[in-house]
Structure formats: C-alpha cells, structure tokens
Design a protein that fits this description.
Distance between the termini: 61 Å
Structural class: mainly alpha
Largest sheet: 2 strands, antiparallel
Helix content: over 70%
Shape: globular
Strand order of the largest sheet: 1-2
C-alpha cells in the first residue's frame, strides 16, 4: 500500500506536467547533435532547487530519458547519433529511412525505447539493493575487458571487415590517449600544442566522424537525401506493433541486457546498444539483413540504451556511484536537496526516492505519445526540405553543436578535421563506429588496464590479475567467441544452401534416390576456418587500404617512440595499443598481398561531383577560420548562404532564392539566440559582431 501512495504522489498535475515537458525538451535536445543530455540536465539543475525535491528530480529524470531516446531521430534521419548511445541505431535506422521507411523506423524506436525504459525503471523500483551488488563485483580488470568486449563486438559486426574494425578501434583508443593521461597525469601526443592538451572531445569526434561524411556525400549528387514516401502513411503504428510483437523476445532480452549493463558505472548505453545489437543479429534467422535496414537492429539498440537509464540510477541511488555524466549531475542535485545517498536511502527518505522512480516511469510512458507526435512530422519534414536548406542547416548544427560543449573553437576545428579524415577512411572500408567507440571507451579501458597492471605487478601476478578472475574470464571468452564466430561458423548458412540445392538436383535426376555425394556433403564439418580464410583471400586486393595501414604503422611506431619520455603509468597502455595496431595492420597488409589485384575502378560513382565535395570542405574550413574575425553569427550567415549555392543543382527563380535566404537568416538567428540567451553558452564575438 505504501508504494501505491508514492505512485499517487507522482500523479499530481505538476509532476505530470514536469514529466511531459522534460520528455519533450529532452527529445528535442537529444535529436540535435552536440546538445547532450548532460548539458540539458546541468543547465536546468538550478531551476529545480526551488521545487519540491521529488518534482525537481522527476523533471531532470524526464529530460535525461527523453534525450537518450531523442538521439535516435538524428541517427535515423541524418545518420548521425544524437547521443553516443545511438551509435548502433545508425546501422539499420538510416538505411530504413533512405528506402522510405523512416516513419516506421522512428515508430519502432519509440516503442522499443518506451518498453526498454519501463523495464529499467521497474528493475530500479523493485530490485535496486541486490542489483547494486553486481556493480561492486566489477573491478579494474572487468572494466578493461568490458571495454575491449565492446570494441570486439563492433569489429565483428563489420561483416567482411573485422580486421579493419579492430584497426578502427585501436585508432579510437589512440585518439583517447591524446592529452593528459587518465592515470599518472602524463602529457601525451600533443605535438607541443595547447590545442591538443585537452584531448579530443567525444561529442565533437562523434559529430565529425558521422555528420561531416554525410554532408560531403550529400552535395555530391542532386539526389534527395531521403526517399519521400508516396502518400501519407503516417507513423505506421499498427505495422510497428506487429513487428515489435514478432520480436518480443528481442525486446525483452535487449531491455534486460541494457538494464544490467546500465548498472555498471561508466559502461553506458554505447556498450549496451552494441551488446544487444550483436545478440539480436546472432540469434536472428536472417542476420544478413542487419546493417541493411533490419527492424530488429533498431529494436535491440533502442530497447537497451533506454533501459540503461533506470539501470544507471541503481548504483547512483544505492551506492552513490554515478554510472553516467547525467547521473552524476542528478546525484549532485540530490545532495544539494539534502538527500543522503546510500543503502538506507529507500528506508529513510523513501517518499522522495519512490515518488521520483514512479515519476520516471510516468515520463517514460509519456514518451510514447510525445515521440509518436514528433516522429509523425520529423521524417516527412526532413525528407521534404530541399538540399539548399538542409545541407547548410546540418552544417550549422555540427559547428554550433561542437562549439557548445566547451565554448571552444578548437573543438570545432577538431570536429571538421576528424570528419574529413573519417570520410577518407570510410571510403576504404574503415567504418567510423569502431573509431568513435574506441574514443568513448578509451578512458574506461586505460584506467582498468593500468590499475590492473599496477595491482598485478605489485603482487607479482599480472597474468592472474587479467585472466584469473571469474567475471574477467567470462568476458574474455565472450569477446573471443565474438571475434572467432565469423571465422568458425561464417560459411555455415552458405554451405547449407549449397547442400540443399545439390540434394534437390540429385533428387530430381535420380527419381527420388539419394546419391552418395549428398551423404558426403551432409557430413561436411560445421567448423571450417580454412574455408573462411580462403574466402577472405579470394577477395580483390585493396591497394588503397594497404597504403592506409602503412601510414597507421608509421603512426604507431612514432607514438611508441614518444613513450620514452613518459612515466611507466602513462606509457604502458599506449605501447600495448600501438603494438596491437601494428600487428592488425601487418596481418591486413599480408592478407592483401595474397589476394589478386583488383580491376580498375573509379573512386567516385558516375555523376558524383568531386568539385562540390571539395567546395563544401573549403567553405566549412573558411567558416571555422572566420569566426574569430567576423563573430559567430556573421560567419554562420555567410557560410550558410555559400553552402546553399554549393548544394544547388538547378536554376532557381529569384523568389525561391529570397525565401531560402530569409529561411537561412531565421534558422541561424534562432539557433544562435537559443545558444546565447536560453542555454547561456558564451558565443565568440569577432571584429564585426
């Protein structure tokens, strides 16, 4: 009965209004690259101090869960995760949108997000104290192997490019080492520049590696960005319900995985989404559809990353250990309100904490109508916007989003540089996802590795520290299985298909008698790594990829030479990762040497404009350089109008040019006002403005 009273307390009109407003605001913020959940929660924390503690916490929790869900909008519509937890949503969300199923993808993401959030909230409500003990069982080795497990997952998901996925993960880990070492405090790989002293910001890198390549390819052709649906098919709710019901085990499994991973401080939605995505693909009857617009991929990712919200609050409330940056901000708000965090919280201040949990569940439920209403118009609006407005608007969001994180132009410069490099790497098979995930997990991996190394060295048992703990061994086994699965079982489905065709042919030719050849074929070994290796070598030689890995080896060798000036704490992890990068690169190079040379092929498809791609990069480069001179607003207006011309493939009448120019002024001015006057971000002033 006590829980019923707390539930009724959460149902007051003010609490429901705060929950609904928080979800809507969080969804919009999460959909805009660069405007993270952490920023939204941190900016609004002071406004909650005048509220009742439970009401204020409900508002913050609603913004948090809405922002995690909102990341799916950008992932599906523009192939850019609004938040790091939506990385895996891009794998199938954007392909669905490109073929005209964007509304269906958004509806599936909404249903999965709501269910996952409710599962995480119910776990938080009923099982907080016992589940918090799971987090305490994880030490430094477990966190290190968990980060490596996340990287092996995304590498293995790079079908046919596992080695390139591992190399991409190593690149991301190396980017994460730039700046001040997380353990030991060494200054590393800054090339004596202050710009790199703070390292590469995760959100800036995410925006650059995902969004800039989309923009570069967007201006290369006059084709529309997304396929416009014929007729108004709306949100396709019943169709989405039918798909979700057929995938109910995927939804439940992914939600539980997300909750459990959310309990682990620092793990977050990135790992949860990838683990769930990998498990959904492994258990699917049609794994080849994943990455090409499979609804199950969206369902798995969005169920898991929203379940981490409730899961992450478990160690936050019970142990005082925040799992994510938004959790840390909300923990600070709890402490300011005089709430004592710890195992006795639920007994001594149950009214506040249980009302907050019920409010979080209500906010998650309200995400369904709010998300569907936003999604009903989001896809159609994005699909119908002409490129002359869409390209400069997305470009403006990338610049302002990168700048808004730390009010630092260096982040914008790094975003653009990484975006161009990412576009080049992506063209030769090095996907951005492993690089981004390596950067996201870099500090977790290094801290766990160095601490485990120190403890193992002090006890003269380094190997035992890394491989002698039960949970570590379980994670290592899972990571090894993930990497070896394509090698051992990758051709199983193709062999089964060939056997079925041969058996049918023999059956027809022998009037129903089974030939001896069929029996021999049926006894083929399931595990055949030699056949997999032959299949890999049979592919055409990737000469450009060979050139890139040579450059990567030289970069790794240079990085190792730089470690001579570092302390043992600061050098052990870079040396290990650089050695791994060299090994993976040499193996990839050797495999390409064994392949036959590829036939001549053009780097660009017919009809693609190289000059427009170069023009976009040049305009954005001048934009970044011009900001300190002209001011942010003036530089943005000039760049907006220039990019509109770069992306224009038709002779436009004067009226349309005037309308789109006025639209550009309105978009830039509106977003500038939002940043400067609402979010109170310090915008740079130049000589003109």
């Amino acid at each position: 009965m006590e829980l019923l009273g707390y539930f009724l307390s959460a149902l007051t009109p003010l609490n429901i209004l705060m929950a609904l407003g928080g979800v809507v605001l969080g969804t919009i913020i999460g959909a805009l690259p660069g405007l993270s959940a952490t920023m939204a929660v941190a900016v609004l924390v002071p406004f909650t101090f005048t509220m009742d503690p439970a009401t204020g916490l409900i508002a913050l929790g609603a913004i948090y869960t809405g922002a995690i869900y909102g990341g799916a909008f950008a992932a599906i519509l523009v192939n850019t995760p609004g938040t790091p937890s939506a990385i895996a949503t891009t794998f199938d969300g954007f392909p669905m949108a490109k073929r005209g199923d964007g509304n269906l993808a958004i509806t599936l993401a909404t249903l999965a997000s709501v269910f996952g959030g409710l599962v995480g909230g119910i776990f938080l409500l009923l099982l907080s104290p016992p589940l918090a003990k799971v987090a305490l069982a994880f030490g430094p080795p477990e966190y290190f192997w968990l980060a490596i497990f996340g990287l092996t997952l995304i590498s293995a998901l790079s079908v046919g490019n596992t080695l390139k996925g591992l190399i991409g993960g190593c690149i991301g880990l190396m980017l994460a080492m730039v700046g001040v070492a997380v353990v030991g405090g060494d200054i590393r790989f800054t090339m004596d520049t202050q710009m790199l002293l703070g390292g590469f910001d995760i959100v800036s890198a995410l925006i650059g590696l995902y969004c800039i390549p989309v923009l570069i390819d967007l201006v290369a052709t006059p084709d529309p960005h997304l396929k416009v649906e014929q007729g108004n098919r709306g949100i396709r709710l019943f169709e989405a319900f039918g798909i979700a019901w057929k995938s109910k085990f995927n939804v439940i499994r992914s939600s539980v995985i997300g909750t459990i991973i959310g309990i682990l401080p620092g793990a977050g939605g990135s790992i949860a989404g990838l683990v769930s995505y990998s498990e959904a693909r492994r258990s699917s009857k049609t794994p080849e559809e994943f990455g090409n617009g499979a609804p199950d991929g969206i369902i798995a990712t969005e169920s898991a990353n929203n379940a981490t919200v409730g899961g992450g609050f478990i160690p936050t409330l019970v142990l005082g250990i925040p799992g994510t940056p938004p959790d840390a901000v909300i923990l600070g708000a709890l402490l300011v309100q005089g709430i004592k965090i710890g195992p006795t919280l639920f007994a001594q201040q149950g009214e506040i904490v249980y009302t907050f949990i019920f409010g979080l569940l209500i906010a998650t439920a309200l995400m369904l109508p709010a998300g569907l209403l936003i999604g009903r118009y989001a896809y159609k609006s994005i699909a119908s916007i002409p490129k002359t407005v869409l390209v400069p608007t997305i470009a403006f969001l990338t610049v302002v989003g990168s700048f808004a994180i730390h009010s630092n132009l260096h982040d914008v410069q790094m975003m653009l540089a990484l975006g161009v490099i990412g576009w080049i790497l992506n063209r030769y098979g090095f996907a951005p996802s492993p690089i981004v995930l390596g950067l996201v997990l870099g500090q977790i991996a290094e801290q766990g590795f160095v601490q485990s190394y120190l403890i193992g060295n002090a006890t003269s048992n380094i190997a035992g520290m890394f491989f002698g703990r039960p949970i570590s061994l379980a994670i290592v086994t899972l990571a090894a299985f993930t990497l070896l699965y394509p090698v051992l079982f990758g051709n199983r489905k193709e062999r089964a298909r060939k056997r079925a065709v041969a058996a049918a042919k023999n059956y027809a030719e022998t009037d129903g008698e089974t030939a001896k050849a069929d029996e021999a074929a049926l006894s083929e070994p399931v595990i055949n790594p030699v056949a997999h290796l032959k299949g890999v070598i049979a592919k055409p030689r990737d000469t450009a990829g060979m050139g890139i890995v040579v450059l990567l080896v030289l970069m790794a060798v240079w990085a190792i030479t730089q470690t001579s000036e570092m302390s043992p704490l600061g050098s052990v992890f870079p040396i290990t990762i650089c050695a791994a990068l060299i090994v993976f690169s040499i193996v990839l190079f050797a495999m390409n040497l064994l392949r036959k040379p590829a036939g001549a092929k053009s780097g660009d498809q017919a009809g693609e404009s190289v000059s427009r791609r170069i023009a976009l990069i040049v305009v954005m480069g001048f934009w970044v350089v011009a900001i300190p001179l002209t001011g942010f607003w003036v530089a943005a207006i000039l760049a907006f109008l220039s990019l509109a011309r770069v992306s224009c493939y038709e002779d436009m009448p004067a009226k349309r040019i005037i309308v789109e120019t006025l639209a550009g002024f309105a978009i830039v001015t509106g977003l500038y006002w939002l940043m400067a006057d609402v979010l109170l971000i310090r915008m740079p002033a130049g000589l003109l403005f």
